[in-house]
Design a protein that fits this description.
single chain, 265 residues, alpha/beta, Arc Repressor Mutant, subunit A, Rossmann fold, 2 domains, 55% helix, 9% strand, elongated, DNA binding, carbohydrate derivative binding, WH-like_DNA-bd_sf, transcription
Length: 265
């Protein structure tokens, strides 16, 4: 694998000014960058946390957590302030548990650092007006899809989850302009999801995506995009990717509750 600082140096001439500021700051002192939170790095580069996150994705990484991890490895250490791990007096199982907790917490933190609150508010209002909702959640995304389904059902919205492509695509054509289609994924494998969403849009439905990139094919065909941080390469099983989506779903739950309370006031 190409060292992270070499990768940044290679792409430097192609970067926008705001991204270049981030890159130059990292290259000037990689260990310091590795020890910085996303807020600290953004402030030092006089830019936004969203720019830092998108810069990490621009150089082919999943997000800020992975960039920070690789910078620390390259510097010969793993640094993270209060996220730092220790193995003193601990067995292998407890060390793994702390590492997993670290990855999950970082995923949630990165998700909220890149959250578009305006898009979240618009998505909540769309869902609050929906008569029916279809959720297309293939493979492991079904777990999160069923959680969202329960949240919407509790709010009084008729909701169905489709875990396989054929059923979802067939159902999408039955939607109307009062309905909402939701595509959920924690990976970049979204071709089938895009087909279902396009079918739902052609039928008149609104569409929302829960995905891990603002630039994914799925994000380009929906009305609103709710982006969560992808799993770090250090997460061998990828489970941390869904923690950010669950956090976003809890935001949807809170927002719909607030809308209900205000309408009854």
């Amino acid at each position: 694998m190409i060292p992270i600082t070499e990768r940044i140096s290679n792409i430097l001439p192609k970067l926008r000014p705001s991204e270049r500021s981030v890159a130059e700051l990292i290259l000037h002192n990689p260990p310091k960058a590795a020890a910085s939170t996303i807020s600290e790095l953004a402030n030092a580069a006089f830019t936004s946390k969203t720019t830092v996150m998108r810069f990490a994705q621009r150089i082919g990484l999943s997000g800020y957590s992975q960039m920070r991890y690789l910078l620390a490895l390259e510097a010969g250490k793993r640094s993270g302030h209060d996220w730092e791990l220790t193995d003193k007096g601990a067995d292998a199982l407890s060390i793994d548990a702390r590492q997993l907790a670290k990855l999950q917490l970082e995923n949630i933190r990165d998700t909220f650092n890149m959250l578009d609150t305006k898009s979240l508010e618009r998505a909540i209002r769309i869902l609050a007006k929906a008569k029916r909702v279809q959720i297309y959640a293939p493979a492991d995304s079904a777990v999160v899809g069923f959680f969202l389904s329960q949240v919407l059902s509790d709010a009084g919205v008729i909701c169905v989850v489709y875990n396989d492509y054929e059923s979802g695509l067939a159902a999408a054509s039955s939607l109307m302009d009062s309905d909402v289609a939701i595509g959920m994924t924690g990976t970049d494998d979204v071709d089938n999801l895009v087909s279902s969403i396009r079918c739902a849009k052609n039928a008149g439905a609104k569409a929302i995506a829960f995905t891990t990139s603002y630039n994914s094919p799925l994000a380009n065909v929906v009305d609103e995009v709710l982006v969560s941080a992808p799993a770090s390469d250090a997460d061998l099983f990828g489970g941390s990717a869904f923690l950010g989506q669950i956090a976003l779903i809890n935001c949807v739950r809170s927002g719909m509750n607030l809308l209900t309370a205000s309408s009854q006031a």
